[in-house]
Structure formats: C-alpha cells, structure tokens
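INFO worker-7 received task bundle
INFO bundle size: 2
INFO processing item 0
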Amino acid sequence: MISIQNLSVEFSAKTLLDNISYVINRRDRIALVGKNGAGKSTMLKIIAGLQRPTSGTVAVAQDVTIGYLPQQMEISDSLTVVEEVRKAFAAIDDLHRKLDDLNQQLASRTDYESAEYHRLIDDMTSLSERIAMEESENMEAEMEKTLTGLGFDRSDFCRPTSEFSGGWRMRIELAKLLLRRPDVLLLDEPTNHLDIESIQWLEQFMVTKAKAVVLVSHDRAFIDNVTNRTIEISLGHIYDYAVSYSHFVELRRERMEQQMRAYQNQQKQIQDTEEFIERFRYKATKSVQVQSRIKQLAKIERIEVDEVDTSRLNLKFPPAPRSGDYPVTADNVGKSYGNHKVFSGASFTLKRGDKVAFVGKNGEGKSTLVKCIMGEIPFDGSLKIGHNVKIGYFAQNQAQLLDGELTVFDTIDRVATGDIRTKIRDILGAFMFGGEASDKKVKVLSGGEKTRLAMIRLLLEPVNLLILDEPTNHLDMQTKDVLKQAIQQFDGTVIVVSHDREFLDGLVEKVYEFGGGKVRECLGGIYEFLEKKKISRLQELELSKSPSASSVAAAAEKHRQSQKPTQPATAPDSSADKQTAPQRKSYQEMKEMEKLARKARKKISEAEAAVADVEQRIADIESRFAAGESTEELIRQHASLKKEQENAMSLWELAVMEGEQFGV
C-alpha cells in the first residue's frame, strides 16, 4: 500500500535517515523502534505527508487512507466529547462518491473471473459496510464502545472537552482516529496518556479491527501483543524483521553473533594468507603459490559487521541518606474538589526500602495523592512524612516545564549548586548529552531527550524517597531498562505512578489500585495484580460501573468489604480501619443483582443467536460466490449482510460489556 524508496533525511548537515527503503503491506502491524532521537517520529511525519525528506520518495496507493496520531497536537475546545468524536464520520459524502464510482466501474466490466474484478467487489463490499455503519444507529454504538474502551464514563459524553486535561483530550483524538478506520494507522506513543485497562482495550482493538499499523511505542508488552513486524532505526539505517519485538531482539542478537564469528574467521584467514605472502614473496620457488594467494585474497568478499549504536545511558542514583523506618504513613486520607470526591479512606504505611506502584484509570487520584504527599495541595485525614525524609519528585509534565530557549548545559547549570557545577559536563555525558549535544537548545530535543534532561535534576542532590509520576513516557526501551535497573539498585523508598506493565514487572512488590473513590492495597507484582483482576468480577464491576448499575456497584463494594479480614492489611494502628465494621448485602440488593444478571444473560444469548444467524446467511452467499455465481443482486445482498453482521457484533459486544458488570 505504501512504498518508501531511498529515503534520506538530514538535519544541520547530520544524517538522520540514510537511503532507507521498505514497503508497508495490508495487515502489517509494524513496531518502529530505536533509541530516542533515532528518527522514529520523523519517519511517521514523512509517511503522513507532514514533512518532506531530504531525498527519496513515499508512494501511497490510490484511495489508501492514512490516520496519524502525533505525540503532541493542538486541540480545539468548543464542543462536547460526543460532538467532537462525531467528526470522525464527516467524510460520509466522499465515501458515497467513491461507492458510485466503483458501481460504475463494475457495470462497465465483463471480466467477471479476473483478479481486478474481484478486487473491485471486495472494495465495494468494504465501502458499503463502512457507509452502512456510519449511517445506521450502529454509529452511536461504535462511538460509545470506543469512548468507554478508552476510559470515558457515559456521564462524560456530554461534558465540554475544555473540562478535560491534555491527556484526556488526546484520548478523544485517538477515538476519532480509530472510528475513521483508515487503511494505515500511524500512532506515535499512543499509550502515553492511557491507563492499563485502556491499553488492554486498545490492544484488542488493534488486533481485531485495525488494518495496517505503524506504531512507535516504548511499551514493550503493548507492541509485543499488537505487532507482527519490527523495523529498528539505528544510526540512520533500518533492520526489518517479520516478527514481534521480543523475537526480533533474539534474532538480532543471534545475527550479530553469527556475523561476528564469520568476521573473526575471515580475519584469521586473511591474516594467515597475508603472512604467507609476506613470508615467501621473494622466494622464486614459491612465486606460483604467492601469486595464487594474492589472487585469492583479492577475490575474498569482505564480511562487514553491522554498526552498533553503543551510546548508552549511565544512570545511578546517589546513595540514599537513612530515613526513618516509615517514610510515609497515611490514615484515612481523602481529597475532594467541591462536590467531586476524587478518593477517600486511603490508609497505608510505606516502610523504608519499599518499592510500590500506583495504578488505575486516569482521574482516579494517583497524581492527586502524590501531590498530597508532596504537600502541594490540602487534603482530609492524616498523612505523615517520616523522620529525615528527603523527596525527589519527577512530575508527569516535568519535561514540558523546561525552557525551550535554553541550551542543555544552561538548563542544568541554572539549578546546579556547589561542587556539582564542576561535574555538569560529566553528568551530561552520562546521559548521552556529551560533546556538541550539550549545546543544543531544549526546543529541538525529542520527547525522550527532554525526559532524560529532566531526570538529571533528580541526581543533583541525594534523596531517600523517589516519587516518579509516569517517568517512562517518551523514553526508549534501552533507557527504560537502565532506569529500571537504577531504581532496583536504589536503596531508598520508591513510589512509581505508571501504566507500563513491563517496566513495573520485577520492580515493585506492592500495587495500590485507585478506582471507585477508593485506594486498595494488592500484595505482589504487577502481573499478579492483573491476574487477580481477571478472576475478581467484583473488582471489575467497580472499575467499569455505569449509571444504570450504580446501585449494584455499591452493593458489590459492600460485599467486597465484607470479604476482607477484620484485621487491617496495613497501618496496624489505623483508627479508620478499626471503626469500619464488615457489611453484608441486604436481601433486596442481592435480589436486584440477580434480576439484572438474568436480563444480561438473556441479552447476550439473543445477541449470540443473531450473530450466528447472519454469519450463516453470509456463508451461504459466499458458497454461491465460490461456485461461480456473481450477480449484482447477490453482491448487494452480501454487502447488506456484512452491515447486518457488523451491527450484530456491536450489539453482542455491548451486551457482553454490560454482562461483565453483573458477573455474567
């Protein structure tokens, strides 16, 4: 569909991409990987037509549509969420014109058995399905399903977009892009503004509904679950493998090892040959062998080892000064803004050396609790910071707060004090800002480079409580691995707010889940936490409650509380826990839940029957196609049934989502 030929890009006489060629095919799901600043975002902009290369071409097949989601974008705030998302269907008139054109082409052709004729039928069927979806009630269902999948509540749909943070507005743009169903999706760090539940939904969407995808992401678990091809950009060149990222890393290492062994063997052969030539060059009796070896040496095709990008971040946090045994103790902490309760009743104790994660949907209070710990905002309850606790805080928007007009060196020089000022060059070199890179202006840095620069601030003075709010956004995989290792070796206490499952795996031993106005402690790592969520229907109910099920959700929460041990799991002296008596659901609440569950089961059963019926009718028509029967009436019936199938599938998915709320 898209052919990239001999593409080169230069910035300030420096080659970023050097004579690159590859093709994006239908159903390709490509992970575009490489270190920060390698040219990944530049490549997406060029494919999207937003930037011109220095040389080379990007050829896009006729009628191929491209959807592009950048890392940052300007977003208007004049409409509600639903009104903004409905813009995704504004191209309906263009689709009708394309369908009319295809109908005219089919009417004028008689080569019914040709590949071109069948391609036209496929295109017309696909286009008819798209128009049918956009013109039917199914459009509203698709919008609702996409928005809820990306973390919006139904109560958010009619709210003005101006009330949402930048991250949530990016989700709105992502929803519009997914609803357009372009032939090629170009996504630049789509998970940066998503929580774990939304990332898992997006994974499922990409696997089941997306067409071709080119994806830049530093979330290893996400790209492994979504992609089937990996293109690495390194030192201006690309390495293209038709495998997932994890498999690519293994194959890349094996290929480098094989190359190195072959190179070393050849070098030994060359050295032996040269030594023979030099030894017997002037002996007449060996002249024939010498000439033979010289010809042999000239014919050897030299093996080259792929150039490896060896620049690497060297990150190590300074030794942590000893703090008290309990750096943070929270007792019945809560936070509200007017009538809106963000969370309440948070009670926990962090011991010295604990490494914990704050996870949950955006807007549930993770960053808010961090601000409470930092003393930046008032709160309810008691929150004590232990003796001699020195906090190092990396905010979610830390990189955006940098002054773009300053150089890298000046940015650090302005905050460094004492002896550290004499070591600024060394520190910058350890963070891959050595040499001329330290004189770059901040505004020309990539997102990952800005994040690295902001991270240096944490090294300027020793701390014993690290609070990192989404530290991996924009960091490449190698840098994330180095950061993870540095945190593992850090001997202080760590709180990490993150949605990156791979980063949290093996790093934290406790997870605090934010949701439904509560903060719950879950012992174990991130994958243990996710596994518990899969088998715990009541927790899923709390995470995905809808207005129609609010009373049931409240009953489920009471039931969950009744199943807890009477002894508090954390903060043994918490008076809030002592005052909370276990509660059981009333008979009326249980009866109401059973009634709603029966209705949900019936709706799912009816939806499944409808899907099975339409699929059987489609199969009957396709068997007639296979037998050589192909009339315009049959084609129209097939397109109509495909539309009906899409509607039935959407209704079934909504029924299943609704059923999950009641444990069905």
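INFO item 0 finished
INFO processing item 1
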Amino acid sequence: MRRIGATVCFVLTCALAAASIPISVGREPIYDAVLYPVNAVALGLSGALILTHRRAQPIGWLLTVMGLDAAFVEFTEGYGYHPAWAAAATAEWLTNWTNYFGIGGTAIVVLLFPHVSRIRRFAVGVASVAVVLLMVGAAFGHASDPAFGSGVNPYAVDGLEPVYLAGQVLFLACLLAAIGSVIVRFRRSSGVEHQQLKWVAYALFLLALAAVPAIFWFNDSALVQIAIALVVPLLPAAICVAILRYRLYDIDLIINRTLVYGVLTVLLTAAYLGTVLVVGAVVGRGSSWATAGATLAVAVTFRPLRARVQDLVDRRFRRARFEALARVDAFVDALRAGEADPEDLEELLRDVLAQPGLEVRYLPPGAGYVAGENELLVERAGVPLAIVGGPQGRGPEGREPEGRGTGGGSRLREEVVARAGLAIEIARLRAEVRRQLAEVEASRARIVAAGYEERRRLERDLHDGAQQRLVSIGLTLRNAQFELGGNPAIDAAVEQLGVAIAELRELANGIRPAYLDDGLDVALRELAERTPLRVDVHVGAERYPSDVESTAYFVACEALANTVKHAGATGVAVRAERRDGHLVLTVRDDGAGGARPAEGTGLRGLADRIAAQGGRMRVESEPSAGTTVVAELPCAS
C-alpha cells in the first residue's frame, strides 16, 4: 500500500508540475516557470525512492507530500495569473498559504534526518506548530496582502497578524536549531552516519551560499533567482542519497571538486580582471590586446594553479588521500633513483590503503583477465599489467573505503594505483623475468634429467647387451683353447677381449654406476675404494632424488680425479648432508692447494653441471692449505 500511495502521489506531482509550465510561461520568467516545477518533481521522486527502499523512514512520506504541495503551489500560482478564469482569485489565495507547508517542511526534514532523537522530536513538534501558525496567518491574516495581485487578501480577518509573526519567530528558531543540530551531529558522528550528514551539510551549505545574495538582490537579479532555483532541489536529492546510501562516499569527491573549482574560479577571475586592467592601462582600455593577454594568462596558469589548489584542498580536507598519494609519489621517485625495491610495492599499497588482504598479481604478456568484484585491472598504454584486489577493510583514518556504492571498489585505491602505474610496470617486468628464469632453470633441469636417464639406458644396454656378448665370446674362446691346446693366436685374442671388456666396464661406470641404485653412500664408498688415496666417506643412508645423487656422484668423481692428478694429497674427506633443503657435498684434501677454477675446464665443467640443477659451487684453495670443493644442490624434502 505504501508503494501504491507513493506512486500515486508522485504521478499527481508530475502531472501538476507539467500542467503548471504552459499556464505560467509568459506570466513569469521562463526559468521560474520551469525550474520550480522541477524542484517539486525532485521532492516527490526523492520521497518515492525512500518509501520504496526504506518503508519505515518517515522522511519519505514528508518529502512525497512536500513534492505534491510544491507542484500544487506551482499549478495554482500559474492558474492565478489568469484573472478571467473561474476561481482565479481562490487559486491565488491557495498559493499564498499552502506554500508555507513546503517552506516549514524543510526544517522538519532536517530535524528528522537520518533518525530522530528525543530532543529533536520536541523541535519537530515546535516546527509543526510554526508551520500551522504561518499557514493560518497567511490564509486569514493581512500579513500576506503584498503577495496578492490586488494587494489585499480577500479572506483576511482582522487581528491575526500576531499569529503570522509568532509563526515566523518559531520557524526561524526551529530552522536555526535544525542547522545547528546538523553541525553538532556532524562533528560528533563517524562512519556511515558521518557520511550521511556530510551530504546534508553540503546541500545546506550551498543553500546558505545562495541565500546570502538572495536576501539583498533576489528581486533585482535574475542570476540570483536562477541560482536559488537550481540549489533548492539539492537538499531532497542529498537526503535521498544519504538515506539509501547510494554512492555514499562520493560526497568526498563532490566536496573536493566544489572547493577546487570554486577557488580556481575565483583566482582565475581575479587573474583575468587584473590582467585586463594592467594591459588596458598600458595599451588603452577596450583594446583587444587586453582581452587576448588576459585569456592567455588564464590558459597558461590553469593547469599549474589547479594542481596547486588541488594539493592544498587535499591537504586540508582529504588528508588521507593526500598522504596516500604523497607516499606513492615518494616511492616512485625512490624507485627511479634506484633506492627502492619494486617488490615492496604490494606492502606499500596495503599500508596506504589500510587493506591487509590486498594483493597485486602480475599478468604475463597477452593474458586475458576480467577483474571481479573488489578487483582492479591495471593497464598502461592499453597493456594489462596486473590485478589489484582483495577484501576491503577499513580505510585510512579508520574510515570505510571511499567507494562507488555499498559494494563498489575504492576510488582512493583507483587513484593510488593509477599514480603507482610506473612502479607496477617495473615490478611486473621483474616478475616476468623471474618467471622466465624459473622456466629456463626448470627446462635445464629437465634436460639434465633426460640426459641422466639416457645414460642409464646406455649403461643397461652396454651391461646387458655388448658386455655380456663379449664375455660369452671369451668363454667360447677359452673352451676352444682348452680343446685345441695352446695356440698363440687364441691366447692373443682372449687377452684383447679381456682388455675390451675392462674398457667397456669402465665406460659403463662413467655413464652412471649401478651402485647409485643402492644410494649415494654405497656409490661414494665404491668410488673411494677405486681411488689410489685414503678417502674418508661420511654420507649416511639418507636418499635423495636420482638426478641430485647422480650430480653429487660425478662432482665427487671429478674432484677426486683432480686431487689425484694435481693436488699431491695424502688423504681426502668426502661428506654429504642435508642442510636447509639442499644436499651439501664437501670434498676436502690436504694437498698443495692453489687451484684456480677459472683457468681449468674440469672445475668449470663441474660448476656448469651443478648450475644445471639449480645449485651452486664454491672452491676454497689457498696455497699450501689444501682444496675444498663445496657443492649445494636443491633437493625436495
């Protein structure tokens, strides 16, 4: 029923407002005939929207009725402009006293917004009495005589002037109390209520700003009349936005823009007039050079002056935004100077936006991505760079984030991210380089693993194929030698066959020893037994990935071979252990030392083999202090 009632009232408001325009045009200024019906529609629409979404909010009904009353006043006023029409005098009379319902309702709406307290409920009662006294005094007293075309209220009764005066006094007191209550509540409030009151305070400020010149020049200036007609609908619109909480935090941006462009307009106007006066004094008044010079001065100073005014306004009225953007600018400057790390950007954004859950995910080239709720797709020169998103917490200074509505993203975040575009691009490029390096390392590790697997296959083929056949041939020759007796040719063949088998076994062992199947400890101990030096092995039975064990084994082989050939050592210690997710292999001898990895191919080849596994090698070889080779190979836990 409420929706139906609100809809009916709004439809009647629109009909009366539309009907008032054609009967008023030509009888009053065009802006008066059009703008005030628009105000009536704004009141009715605001009330209808509030009743539709907030049924328990009494302001909705009050605004709806005020809109209907304003449209009725405009219609009866236009009708009263035609004395020849039936009941024209009555229509004029209705206009002059029903108008006070809308005037008094303004103070009541402000007192009721956004909810009423016990003290303000009393003020609402007083304001209602004031409205009744004004309406009665205007309808039946001589106080409204000047408003009639004839100069006399046809329904006036002598002695009611004090009623009208009492209504004026009470209304003025209630209006001041309403404005004062908004100021007090605004200073004491926080969060959503603070933003709601900010909308109403902004509308009241603009109304007061327009009312000051209207007191002195309303009847003499069409500009003042237009300004009043334009500003009046802002109050119901602000109340509607505040109650419905639609784009609630946009008020900060609106106030910011109003202050910036208001100050900018005053300064540029002053600059223009000053330039005209100065140049005119030089080249003569009325010269086109004065106008051209003033226009040029305004055009040149607009951008730097706007930036300066914006900074001053942000510093005073949007401190959180100013400090956030200043920190981002400082970070970008430090990044350009090489004094900051791009990887610190995410932590900076979390800090300046007070959103601990915020994440920056960099996109690879050509990646397609559609930003979801609370996510922001960052682009630079049309190229997608990253996704900035995450749950929105409370904003700077303990406020809720500046958003595009109750579920929208943060406007402050958009501004901060736009200002940090260069840093985001640098961080994305570094992330892309790291990703490509990781792919190269993984690819190199896969190639090494494939090489090891191929070597194992060759080892099995040699052991199970050619080597076994040669052994069989040797046994056959031995049988033939036994049956035929001593034969130098057969003896030579058997001897050469033995050499071939030994070389084949050595080749197979160089590819990958079968002992590694039993673990690194077994393989290194077997290697120590074949080394013509005393070798102490400390490994243990722990197993590691196959490719890691193979690399560690061949590192030990090369290190021991270098020790035997060049070190002149009497003993070697080989140790392998897991440390911080790495297999650390240490080969230490007591030889002459002085090894130079950069000058030999053996140690350099070891370094390349270790790097292929994503590891690193360190050689310590001071003269007369022995040589220590340390290989660190990453291994899964």
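INFO item 1 finished
INFO post-check item 1: The radius of gyration is 46 Å.
INFO post-check item 1: Residues 421-484 form the longest helix (64 residues).
INFO worker-7 idle
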